[in-house]
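Handout for the seminar on molecular recognition.
Each group receives one record of this type.
Step one: identify the two inputs.
Step two: read the structure output and locate the region that could contact zinc ion.
Step three: write two sentences on what you found, then compare them with the reference statements printed after the record.
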Amino acid sequence: MDVPHLVFDDLGSGVPLGPSNLRKIVRAILERKYEKLCPPDYVDRVVKSIRDDPIQLRPPKYGPPKPIAAPKSQARAVALVVNDRHEIHHVRERGYVESPVRIKSILAGIEPTGLFFRVQPKPFAEAHIRAVHDRALLDYLKRACASVPPGQSLYPYVFPIRNQTKPPEDRAYAAGYYCIDTFTPLNRNAWHAARRAVDVTLTAAEMVLEGQPLAYSLVRPPGHHAEHRVFGGFCYFCNAAVAAHYFSRHGKVAILDVDYHHGNGQQDIFYSRSDVLTVSIHGHPRFAYPFFTGFAEEKGKDAGEGFNLNLPLGEKVHGEAYRRALRKALRAIREYDPVFLVVSLGLDTGKADPTGTWSLVAKDFEANGRLIGEMRLPTLVVQEGGYRTGQLGTNAAAFFSGLVAGSQSTSKPGSANKRPRRRS
Ligand SMILES: [Zn+2]
């Protein structure tokens, strides 16, 4: 039965609701809105029944979700580095979902958990980016971004794909030579924000190298669609790949991409290498961006043959189906036996994400985090996509509480305990 409710908001005044006010309110509602349903004697009876002073209010049943408070043993288990310069990168065109509020939403969800401690980002040399990206791309991004007038965006509109040896000299025409789509504009601040995202990710990676078991690089712009010589998909530099290459000097690395979209960036960058295993679970390219990579038959080439694993899934995927794929991915990683794990964390696998079609909810993110944590590998988590801003914080908090619990659990481990074997 639908029982009508009267909602009271004191607008922060702290003044309780008194009976004479409520009598006036109820009378006004019943006489003006329900005149045809309520005869005058009925209205009188209802109004007279209001006697409490002050009026008793029912405690709220639905409110913002309570933060999951971490047990003491899990407090401050994850080093958190945040891109402090991400807000300068704000593309205001309609439909550009990769917006600054994403970071704010995630922070609002994860900070009350007590699982994190903040670390300030520090600068790293550009050589780290050049180690995984073509110098021409880097130079182009730097110059083209600087040349765009403030407040404007540069979109590619010519794609000179047939003669790759002749990049157009004009920076505006050249955009299509370096970009894989038409929705990743260049602007004054994109370079600075993307450059800082790399610094943030390397700061977090360095924490892991120094023995911190779990670190989280909370960045935008994201990175996993940026390939060796091209950018796109809201991404300019492949943050996860820069970090994986940095780790690779100290031992084998696995990258697990759990974003809804294929991690074509790291696949491309490490396609011929055997010292970095790339694994991605994503929407099948027949319906999901980037549409031309992410097929199961892409397995690596030359020395990298057998070191790329794609697990494309269908359009409708719920938590249990996702975990089946995740277990498969983790089995491959366990077999590879890496020293470090980099997780490209996309939250766009969540229910009602505007760029995805799957239906994962908070408890699924927690279960996924737990499975990954049970690998007990030194782990760097790098933020990628996720655009349903109302849900990002809850899902990120759930993922990390699972990750930390899994990494500390004594249940059947995903692999033997591992700590970085530092050589330098
Ligand atoms: Zn994505």
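Reference statements: Residues 72-124+197-408 form a domain with the Arginase; Chain A fold (CATH 3.40.800.20). The chain is about 35% helix and 10% strand.
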